[in-house]
TrEMBL record:
All residue ranges annotated as the HTH cro/C1-type domain in the record: 14-68
Protein's UniProt keywords contain DNA-binding: yes
Name of the protein: Transcriptional regulator
Keyword annotations: DNA-binding
PANTHER family per UniProt: HTH-TYPE TRANSCRIPTIONAL REGULATOR, METHYLPHOSPHONATE SYNTHASE
Biased composition (Low complexity): 127-164
Coiled-coil annotated spans: none
Keyword DNA-binding: yes
UniProt xrefs under InterPro entries: Cro/C1-type_HTH, Lambda_DNA-bd_dom_sf, TransReg_Diox_bact_type
Organism of this sequence: Micromonospora inaquosa
PROSITE patterns (alphabetical): HTH_CROC1
Organism phylogeny: Bacteria, Bacillati, Actinomycetota, Actinomycetes, Micromonosporales
Pfam families reported for this sequence: HTH_3
Region named Disordered: 127-199
CDD domains in UniProt: HTH_XRE
Length: 199
């Protein structure tokens, strides 16, 4: 993987992203809410953009803000943002592919953090329960809890990866109504019908 020294400066990074997206300098400046000359100076390395401008540029270029901050030297690479930066500069990927990969990567990281927290809570609860309760609990039940904490949610007969990918698909498509729930327009129609019946 490329190190920050191997990667172009933030201005070159922005220019490469803009060119890959086939957006003119004027269009990007307009979308990001900055002046055309100011953006030109940023791309040529004559100006260092603020965090706010970097956020606006990241939004206009549809890349993650942490990747933009990393390239500008505002973040270190301890949190895995180098992966996001590498995805963002890969010329072989389309913008949609870069967005999808970034979302999946961030989803996996969040899921791993959640699982680590759940496992730590389970271990703490088990330690509090003491040896007496541990002896009373069936071994298979303890193994099931440890398995869920280690592997995360699964679909019926599925794998943990499938469950995570399903959550990404739901995130991209939006949430679906809960089974048996009715939408607000349907509730309003039902309320109106009930009101007409009583009058």
């Amino acid at each position: 993987m490329a190190t920050p020294k191997d990667l172009p400066d933030v201005g070159g990074f922005i220019r490469d992203l803009r060119r890959n997206a086939k957006i003119s300098l004027r269009q990007l400046a307009e979308q990001a809410g900055v002046s055309n000359p100011y953006l030109s100076q940023i791309e040529r390395g004559l100006r260092k953009p603020s965090a706010e401008v970097l956020q606006q540029l990241a939004s206009a270029l549809r890349v993650s803000t942490p990747a933009m901050y990393l390239r500008a030297g505002l973040l270190d690479d301890k949190e895995g943002h180098g992966v996001l930066a590498a995805i963002a500069v890969d010329a072989d990927l389309t913008m949609a592919q870069k967005q999808s990969l970034s979302q999946i990567y961030e989803t996996f990281r969040r899921e791993n953090t959640r699982l680590a927290e759940a496992q730590a809570e389970a271990e703490a609860a088990q330690a509090e329960a003491g040896a007496a309760q541990a002896a009373d609990q069936p071994a298979s039940q303890a193994a099931d809890l440890a398995n869920v904490a280690a592997t995360g949610p699964t679909t019926v007969g599925g794998t943990p990866t499938e469950a995570v990918l399903e959550s990404v698909a739901v995130t991209e498509a939006g949430t679906a109504p809960a089974p048996g729930s009715t939408s607000i327009p349907q509730k309003k129609k039902a309320a109106d019908a009930a009101e007409e019946e009583t009058s």
